[in-house]
Amino acid sequence: MKNKEVHSTKPEFEELTDQKSGEGRFLVLHNDDFHSFDFVIDCLVEICDMDTVQAEQCTYLVHFKGQCDIKKGSFDFLKPYMEGLTAKGLSATIE
Predict the structure, then answer these.
(1) What share of the chain is helix, strand, coil (3-state, %, to 5)?
(2) Does 11 score more than 70 pLDDT?
(3) 92 bridge partner residues
(4) pLDDT tens-digit series, residues 26-61
């Protein structure tokens, strides 16, 4: 019996999304030693449209892991959220 060649329809590598306009960027909130849990939770609810439970979970992740992905999307989509968080004194980046 001959070995049959198997052709995969799956690409051998994943294409990276364009970092400026693609959907593959993350808004990341970073830990600091200045703001209270309640303040961060309130900011996430107000600026990022999170419900309270989700905001609490993100705040605990930031506290214990040092950072947390808050939202995913294009740079242009994430920029207003980042600006809103940084205007409140929080440390946020788009990666």
Answers:
(1) 40, 20, 40
(2) no
(3) 29
(4) 999 999 989 999 999 999 999 999 999 999 999 999
Residue keyed to tokens 């051998």: 12
Alpha carbon 24 to chain centroid distance?
Answer: 10
Please name the amino acid found at residue 64.
F
Provide the residue type at 42 as one letter.
D
Average pLDDT, the chain: 84
Amino acid letter, residue 45: V
Q: Is the dihedral of CA 58, 51, 72, 30 positive or negative?
A: negative
Q: Where are the domains of the chain?
A: 32-94
Question: How many whole angstroms separate alpha carbon 84 and alpha carbon 27?
Answer: 12
pTM > 0.85: yes or no:
no
In the DSSP assignment, the letter for residue 7 is -
The secondary element (H helix, E strand) that includes residue 69 is strand 67-73
- The pLDDT score that the predictor gives to residue 22 is 55
